[in-house]
From TrEMBL:
Tetramer of two alpha and two beta chains. Forms complex with the iron protein (nitrogenase component 2). Residues 60-517 form the Nitrogenase/oxidoreductase component domain. This is Nitrogenase protein alpha chain. Pfam families: Oxidored_nitro. It catalyses: N2 + 8 reduced [2Fe-2S]-[ferredoxin] + 16 ATP + 16 H2O = H2 + 8 oxidized [2Fe-2S]-[ferredoxin] + 2 NH4(+) + 16 ADP + 16 phosphate + 6 H(+). Belongs to the NifD/NifK/NifE/NifN family. Its cofactor is [8Fe-7S] cluster; [7Fe-Mo-9S-C-homocitryl] cluster. It comes from Pontiella desulfatans.
Length: 546
């Protein structure tokens, strides 16, 4: 959509959607559906319970803890304590990629396994701790891992198994294996976001800081909130290497326990998906004195901007020159591909309902394709993800948030070392670098765009009818419903079979994939058989053959 085009006012759409809800529910949903006015500070209600009966995109707390944060780490055994059904999230559903490690594919890479205690009725009635101990012992005997994480599912919380006591006991018994538990029962928070927080807490408590070996590089960073979906992390690592920047640890794409243990030796934390990992950045700053900056490696321009921020932070002329050299080498290829793709994508409309940062980050790539995001929202975002970090002091802590432990962190008496002075950080902020800060999605969206938090299926259908977008970005649960409406859907949790989409090469991949998806008319031909007007009406349908 060109700059002079204005988005349609979606007020009637909003009224029509809300009219179908009972009054109390309509009042609640109205607060999560905001018609954007960039001149106003509008509150976007988020991180509140999904209304029972509404079909949500969200996952549970355990899914966020095990699936998102710990799932991509290759040398920990993630043991799910619960019924086998929960272990859908124990298997590699997010396409996290990993290096095979020094021992090759047969080495310590456990992410393609599912480990579960497979609780049965008798464990629910008589308790599952004995079975959990046996499972930890069995996993240890077979694989001899460095670490075992134990993840609590709903039934475990309900019957009161103490996974922490069992983990402590087994850690002591095994001697050379770090065993620790997560109280991440599915019901613990309103979405997977609570699971991210719990995962951050336990990694910080049991792993970060366990190895003080000093790094050898000159510019040592951690990348937080990058999960190596479809190889995103590999592409970002390639760019860092070209610039001479050393990554101590990525939380948690392509990560290892050893990297987590040394992560406190870095000089800067770069935060990509702030929703899932800002807790870690804050705790590392308080305990070890490592500053953090928001970055976005989604989009060619964003990648260049993120690299320049790192250069400014380290205030090193040679590094800055190298970064400019890399950008000069990489960006023209990205811009050339974008210019070519724009012939088919310019003026098209996108909708994004995914994650707690992705619905924001990917708007950059659509902008580079000349496309407008007409509506967007998060599955598990909080108000600061929409409105910016400035609203944090005004967010009321409700009972659900209070349910999640807040670690009390203090400066480490020996290892606290402020990597940058207050004056330096203030100067960087004055130059526009987002130090300890991030803007929300709202300020980057156009006036009249519709922001919807925790969108429901009913709302999805009405939005599609109203906007008739050219592409919809969400996850597997929405994919087929949206495609049956004649709209192509790009999965932004798993990238379908594509990616990487981060960094320079990732941007090129994304342009090509979106250009291809927008160039096909196949989805428009989808029509329910009973809607075909004649035998020759273009219609793709299937019939059951016995
Ligand atoms: S909601 Fe509870 S029962 Fe369902 S997958 Fe999550 S932990 Fe398991």
């Amino acid at each position: 959509m060109s700059e002079e085009m204005k988005l349609p006012d979606p007020s009637t759409l909003k009224d029509e959607i809300l009219a179908k809800y009972p009054p109390k529910i309509a009042r609640k949903r109205a607060k999560s559906m905001v018609i954007n006015d960039t001149k106003l500070d509008q509150e976007v209600q988020s991180n509140v319970r999904t209304i029972p009966g509404i079909i949500t995109q969200r996952g549970c707390t355990y899914a966020g803890c095990k699936g998102v944060v710990l799932g991509p780490t290759r040398d920990i055994i993630n043991l799910v304590h619960g019924p086998i059904g929960c272990s859908f999230y124990a298997w590699l559903t997010r396409r996290n990629q990993t290096d095979p490690g020094p021992e090759g594919p047969d080495g310590e890479n456990f992410i393609n396994y599912c480990f579960s205690t497979d609780m049965q009725d008798e464990n629910i009635v008589f308790g599952g701790e004995k079975k959990l101990k046996q499972a930890i012992q069995e996993a240890y005997d077979i694989f001899k891992p460095k670490a075992i994480g134990v993840f609590s599912t709903c039934p475990v919380g309900l019957i009161g198994d103490d996974v922490h006591a069992v983990s402590r006991e087994m850690k002591e018994k095994l001697g050379d294996c770090n065993v620790f538990g997560f109280s991440c029962e599915g019901y613990k928070g309103v979405s997977q976001s609570a699971g991210h927080h719990i995962a951050n807490n336990q990694l910080f408590r049991h792993v970060v800081g366990n190895d003080d070996t000093k790094p050898e590089g000159k510019f040592n960073i951690n990348l937080l909130g990058e999960y190596n979906i479809g190889g995103d992390g590999f592409e970002i690592d390639r760019i860092f290497k070209a610039c001479g920047i050393d990554v101590i640890c990525t939380f948690s794409g392509n990560s290892t326990m050893g990297a987590f243990e040394k992560s406190h030796t870095a000089d800067l934390n770069l935060v990509m998906c702030h929703r899932s990992i800002n807790y870690m950045a804050e705790m590392m700053e308080t305990k070890f004195g490592i500053p953090w900056m928001k970055v976005n490696f989604i989009g060619g321009d964003s990648t260049a901007k993120a690299l320049r921020k790192i250069g400014e932070y380290f205030e090193d002329e040679a590094l800055q020159a190298k970064i400019e050299e890399v950008i000069a080498e990489e960006l023209p290829k990205v811009e050339a591909r974008a210019a070519e793709a724009r012939k088919r994508t310019e003026g098209k409309m996108a909708m994004l309902f995914v994650g707690g940062s992705r619905a924001h980050h990917y708007q950059e790539l659509f902008k580079e394709l000349g496309m407008e995001t007409v509506s967007a929202g998060y599955e598990f975002g909080h108000r600061d993800d929409y409105e910016g970090r400035k609203v944090l002091p005004t967010i009321k802590v409700d009972a659900d948030s209070r349910n999640i432990e807040e670690l009390k962190i203090e400066a480490d008496p020996e290892r606290f070392n402020p990597r940058a002075s207050e004056i330096k950080l203030e100067t960087l902020q004055e130059k526009g670098l987002e130090v300890s800060d991030y803007k929300g999605m709202k300020s980057d969206m156009s006036d009249n765009s519709l922001i919807v938090d925790d969108i429901t299926h009913w709302e999805t259908e009405k939005l599609i009818e109203f906007y008739k977008p050219d592409i919809f970005c969400a996850g597997i649960k929405e994919k087929y419903v949206v495609q049956k409406s004649g709209i192509p859907l790009k999965q932004l949790h798993s990238y379908d079979y594509g990616g990487p989409y981060a960094g320079f090469e990732g941007a090129v991949n994304f342009y090509t994939d979106i250009e291809t998806m927008l160039s096909t008319t196949i989805w428009k031909k989808l029509k329910a058989p009973w809607l075909a007007t004649s035998a020759t009406d273009p219609c793709i349908c299937a019939e059951y053959v016995a």
